[in-house]
TrEMBL record:
Gene3D superfamilies: lambda repressor-like DNA-binding domains. GO terms for molecular function: DNA binding. Residues 13-68 form the HTH cro/C1-type domain. The lineage of its organism: Bacteria, Bacillati, Bacillota, Clostridia, Eubacteriales. SUPFAM superfamilies: lambda repressor-like DNA-binding domains (SSF47413). InterPro entries: Cro/C1-type_HTH, Lambda_DNA-bd_dom_sf. Pfam families: HTH_3. PROSITE patterns: HTH_CROC1. This is HTH cro/C1-type domain-containing protein. It comes from Symbiobacterium thermophilum.
Length: 230
């Protein structure tokens, strides 16, 4: 069964409009597509300007054109794939750089959505050559400026609805090898707990510095006591 045929597309548009409680005229105001055109699409009648019309509808409702065409949602599928990762691997993503996150999404799209995102199309949308795309999605060493990463993150958001802030929230630096891998998840939960509570990063940073100072003082006291007793 072809899920990209006009009838299936119309069903998805109608379901999307109903989920937001929009009338046809409200959907028109949201998307910039006339209510008569939306009504025809929902009835399974495709127009010559279908692609541009679907793009407006997708932008108006904050989804991807691919979802309207195929029923598949790359953002939802990607987030589901992350949730299925082992806790330690999932925690590592908190400390992954924006470039690492960008490459992770590209590999996901190229492996899970080859029909929706052919290499040529994906490269064109990211303003890359196919060879540059393959190198970016590979595992070799690669260096890109922050501005370049941010620009591609914005383009990927347009394609997949994965938000720019997810890409750019990554840690730009090397994760210290002295951190035990089994503790990464615990540290990530602490960061999330502080963020949910609304604790400012500078306040959290200061509190950690005080804890480090106290920890070092206690360690010095223990060492001095051990020398006296020894």
């Amino acid at each position: 069964m072809n899920k990209s045929n006009p009838w299936h597309i119309g069903r998805r548009i109608a379901a999307l409009r109903a989920a937001h409680g929009d009338s046809l005229r409200q959907a028109a105001a949201r998307t910039g597509v006339s209510h008569t055109t939306i009504g025809r699409l929902e009835a399974g009648q495709a127009s010559a300007s279908l692609n541009s019309t679907l793009r407006k509808i997708a932008e108006g409702y904050g989804i991807t054109v691919e979802y309207l065409l195929t029923g598949r949602d790359p953002q939802r599928d990607f987030e589901g794939a992350l949730r299925r990762l082992p806790p330690e691997d999932r925690a590592r993503l908190y400390f992954a750089s924006p470039l690492t996150r960008l490459r992770l999404v590209l590999r996901f799209l190229m492996s899970e959505y080859p029909a929706e995102f052919p290499e040529e199309t994906l490269a064109e949308r990211l303003c890359l050559s196919v060879e540059e795309l393959r190198r970016l999605a590979g595992t070799g060493e690669l260096t890109l400026s922050d501005d370049h990463v941010a620009a591609m993150a914005e383009r990927l958001e347009q394609l997949t609805a994965i938000p720019v802030h997810w890409f750019m929230a990554g840690f730009n630096g090397e994760l210290s090898p002295c951190i035990p891998p089994e503790r990464l998840a615990a540290y990530a939960r602490i960061v999330e707990k502080a963020a949910v509570a609304g604790i400012r990063p500078d306040v959290l940073d200061m509190a950690i510095d005080l804890l480090i100072l106290q920890h070092n003082e206690l360690a010095a006291d223990h060492q001095a006591a051990a020398r006296r007793n020894g």
